[in-house]
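REQUEST ID: PR-0412
SUBMITTED BY: lab tech R.K.
PRIORITY: routine
TASK: structure prediction, single protein chain
INPUT:
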Amino acid sequence: MAVTDEAILQIKEMILSGELKPGDRLPPEKLLSESLGLSRSSMREAVKALEVIRVLDVRRGDGTYVTSLEPRLLLEAMSFVIDLQDDSSILELFAVRRILEPAAVALAAAHVTASDIADLRTQLAAVDESSSVEDLVAHDLNFHGLIASAAGNAYLTSLIDSLSSRTVRARIWRGLTQENSVPRTLGEHHAIVDALERGDAALARALTIVHISGVEQWLTDAVHALSAPESLRLDVSRAVKSSPTEELPAAPVR
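STATUS: complete
OUTPUT:
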C-alpha cells in the first residue's frame, strides 16, 4: 500500500472511531504525522486528497478541520468514483488513448521542429514536484496537446484533445494519491521529448505506450478496489453518526 493511502486510511479510522468528529480541528501536521508514524510529506498529501473529496477543510492561516461530513457533500465530491463504479467508459477512453497517442507521437517524430521541441521543454521547465496537482495536470494536457499538434493531422489532434479532457479527474486523483506519480510522470515526459528531438519514432512511440499504460493500470486497480459502493455509503453513514451534527454549520462548498 502506498504511504499516502495508509495516511488517508488512518485519518479515516480516526473519524469513524469518533476520535475526530465533524467540525473538529486536526492536530498540527508535525504532531499528527508523528502520532501516526508517518512522514510529514505523506500526511500533507493525504490531507490534500481528503480536502478534494470534502472530508477535510483546509483553512489557510487557521488550520485543517473535519467537514460536516454530510452525505450530500461527500457523495457530490465523490461523483467521479461513482462514475468509475457504474460506468467503465473511462477505462475505454484510456484504452483508445493508448492506441492513438503513440501513433501521434510517431508521426510527430517525423514532423517536429526545433520550435516544437523548445515549446515542449518550456512546458517541462514550468513544473516540478512542488507544483500543485492542478498545475501538473494542466501541464500534462498541454504537453500531449503540443505533441498531437506536431503530428500535423488536425483531426487526430482534435480527437486526442477531446479524449484527454474527459480523463482530467482521474489524472488529478492519481496525482494526489499514488506515491511518486509526479516525478515518474515528469521523467517519462522528458524521455519522450528526448526521443522526439532525436527523431527516434520507434522509441518515442514505445515510451508513450508505457506512459499511458501506467495511468491505465492504476485506474484499473482503482476500479477494482472501489467495487463495493454500498460499503462506501456505510462508512459515510457511520462517520456522520459518530457525533451529532445539528449545531455544526455545513462546510462551504468551494
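NOTES: The first strand starts at residue 56 and ends at 59.
REVIEWED BY: pending
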